[in-house]
Design goal:
single chain, 147 residues, mainly alpha, 0% strand
Amino acid sequence: MTSAPAPRATRPAAPAASFGDLPGQLAWLVRLRWLTAGGVLIGWAVDRAWLGLYTHTGAWMVAVGVGLVAYNAALWLLLRGWRADRRAVRALAAAQVLLDLACLTLLTVWTGGARSPLLGFFVFHMVFASLLLPRGRWRTSARPPPS
């Protein structure tokens, strides 16, 4: 007679973003933002040279691209060897989410609004917000402003 093996005890899954790895996730977001800023500036250059779709807002797009590079450089310098308490790190995460959302919103408006090819990037932004911000807090970045 063979008995069934005893069930293994399983540990509950850890939350997606615990505080311990939040500074590392913010540093990863800074690395990803370098690609984003490059994409904005390259996209502007391609449009200017060959497409000519957004000539009326080209200078503003460059300003957003340069702004991305500037605040990303500041965040990169800040995160190098930064040791802060939980509250400061969470505030920095919220600031990054809001700055990125502002840049994405401006670029979306300037590239066609509801017909913009950038609309799908809001999904990525909300995923990043849900991973970086405390539970329930990310919803505030998805909420429309009060009227």
